[in-house]
Amino acid sequence: MTPVAHLKNISLSYHSEHGETQAIKDISFDIYDGEFLSIVGPSGCGKSTLLSIISGLSKPSSGTVEILKNLKSAYMLQKDHLFEWRTVFSNACLGLELQNKLNSQTKKKVHELLEKYGLGEFSDKRPSELSGGMRQRAALIRTLASQANILLLDEPFSALDYQTRLTVSDEISQIIRREKKTAVLVTHDISEAISVSDRVLVFSKRPAILKAEFKIDFFSNGKNGLSAREEPEFKNYFNKIWKELDK
Ligand code: ADP
Ligand code: MG
């Protein structure tokens, strides 16, 4: 696989009137083209900080992020940030609109994406008329339409109830794979990470250091997130990651 970014010896400390907080300590890894990478670590360990470094919104205190491809990142967050005063279609167009790229061709693309992922007949509805899962799908389509090639997912499923989370995380990860995007998901949910990823990085508590890396084979073997959870190997991955987090 081809790397799209090298992160080398990244550290970041926040400075405030209460002193210095080191969030991330000497983290190095590569991101590969088209992979679904997850980062698991305890709450407050520095996961969101790392995503903002990857996006270029934050600069590390030391270390380098080398981008090897024309990367355009877009975030997907816990809150879907759909506007109730806009229709589903017009919400899905928002990214393009902000970039001044909304035209008949890109609008057509948005319609196609809504159609392809089961929201065609909801185009003219308001977000409140959608289920939680459909809202996340609409938010994803807005992200995909904005022509980003690397998606940064910051605990996007954590507001959903458990049952919904299982299906929505599976659905969203399948769409991302089908659209051949690179994804970096941060989560504190070990099962979620295993069920959607090609690779899982385990971070320690703050300051985050990279403790371990696991390659997950379910997807290269044709499984999806839900069927992966049924595999005996799933539990092995879970236990190994759990142990690393607990050390
Ligand atoms: P996570 O996403 O893993 O929960 P964060 O990256 O949000 O963790 O935060 C890591 C640590 O850095 C936390 O202790 C948090 O309080 C601190 N932190 C995050 N953002 C800031 C900031 N803007 N200023 C000061 N401290 C911050
Ligand atoms: Mg966070």
Q: Would you mind describing this structure in some detail?
A:
The protein has helices at residues 47-55, 88-92, 94-98, 104-116, 132-145, 162-178, 190-196, 225-228, 232-246, and strands at residues 3-16, 19-32, 36-40, 62-67, 73-77, 150-154, 182-187, 199-203, 210-215. The protein is an alpha/beta fold and 247 residues long. The protein has 2 domains: 1-72 and 151-157 and 181-247, Rossmann fold, CATH 3.40.50; 78-148, no CATH class. The longest helix is centred in the last third of the chain and has 17 residues, at 162-178. Helix content is 36%, strand content 27%. The chain is built from 9 helices and 9 strands. Strands 5-6-7-3-8-9 form a 6-stranded mixed beta sheet, sandwiched between helices. It has a 3-stranded antiparallel beta sheet with strand order 2-1-4, covered by helices on one side. It binds adenosine-5'-diphosphate (ADP) and magnesium ion. Adenosine-5'-diphosphate binds at residues 14, 16, 21, 23, 41, 43-49, 206.
